[in-house]
Every structure is written in C-alpha cells, then in structure tokens.
Design brief:
Number of domains: 1
Order of helices and strands: EHEHEHEEEHEH
Strand order of the largest sheet: 3-2-1-6-4-7-5
Radius of gyration: 15 Å
CATH architecture: 3-Layer(aba) Sandwich
CATH topology: Alpha/beta knot
CATH class: Alpha Beta
Structural class: alpha/beta
Strand content: 15-25%
Length: 182
C-alpha cells in the first residue's frame, strides 16, 4: 500500500505501524466528529477492531487515548486499531477525498439514502457525529453523500456507538461479498 493509499501514513501516527505488520485491514475507516462521550469512543474502538476497520480519525472535541474512561469500553482496542487526531473534521474529509477515499456521513439529513441501498466504493470512510447535534454542518457539506439507518419504532435514533457498529458491519459484509480477503 502506498503512502497515498494509506490515510495513516504520516509522521503523526499514534500507533507503531510495524506492530500490525502482516495484518490485512479493510479499506474502511471512520471519522468521529465531535463525539463527547469517552465511553462511546471506547466502544467505537472496540467495534472497529472487531470489524477490522482500517482505522479511526478522532476529530474536534472527540476524546483521544490514553484515557481510563475510553479504555473502560475499548478493552485494549486503542492498541490494535490505528488512529489519528485531526482538529478540523472538514479538513480531514477534504484530505481523504483528495486521496480518492469516498466519504459518507451517517446522518439523518435531507436526501440521505438508506444505508443498505447506497453504492459504497472502496476505500470508504464513514463519518459519525455528536450524540445530540450530529455531524457538524461544515463536515456534512464536505462529504460525498449521506446515509441513514431507517427507524421503525417510536424512537427516531440510535446511540452513536450502536449506529457506528451497524454501518461498520454492513461495510464488512459488502467488502467480503465483493470477494475481498477476510
């Protein structure tokens, strides 16, 4: 994989890339835009490890490791999932798009497609946002598209970490269905 293809190939990497040498990861990353709960961040690390995502971009006020309140739910996944911190999520989206990565926000927004019907292309990065306010307006304006999880019950949203898991494993199924290696 060339530096252009690897969104984590930069000097500020937080993880020793050699520690994960030989471990193939899906060309799927996620960008966490202003996630206020460290517990949710830890849960997303753990889910990212379970789904074998390529890594996480932690942006804005999103908590970053090392923190005990992240580790409580991450259970060590902060050591196995590549991650990087970027202050400006919209700039991170622009950088990913310039590298040829499709960037899709998981957000209840006008025009959002049902997540199961959207034509994802790899590499792809999905964006999840603040637990109450959602993906920030500048970030939302910078993405390629929006998808949403249709809600059938009285409540019209899921916890952000749960939504993250739904889309992470949907993308894993799509990657495997395309004949890609496990």
């Amino acid at each position: 994989m060339s530096q252009r293809d690897d969104p984590f190939a930069r000097p500020a990497d937080r993880l020793d890339r050699a520690a994960l040498a030989g471990r193939d990861r899906m060309p799927v990353t996620a960008l966490l835009d202003g996630i206020r709960s460290a517990g949710n961040v830890g849960s997303m690390f753990r889910t990212a490890d379970a789904a074998n995502l390529g890594g996480l971009f932690l942006c804005g006020m999103t908590a970053t490791p090392p923190r005990a309140d992240i580790e409580k739910t991450a259970l060590g996944a902060t050591e196995t999932v590549p991650w990087d911190y970027r202050q400006d999520p919209a700039a991170a989206v622009a950088d990913l798009r310039a590298r040829g990565v499709q960037v899709v926000a998981l957000e209840q927004a006008p025009g959002a497609a049902p997540f199961e019907e959207f034509p994802y292309r790899f590499p792809v990065c999905f964006v999840v946002g603040h637990e109450v306010q959602g993906v920030g307006p500048a970030t939302l304006a910078a993405v390629d598209a929006c998808v949403e999880i249709p809600m059938a019950g009285a409540k019209k949203s899921l916890n952000v970490a749960v939504s993250f898991g739904v889309l992470a494993f949907h993308l894993r199924r799509a990657w495997l269905a395309a004949g890609s290696p496990r």
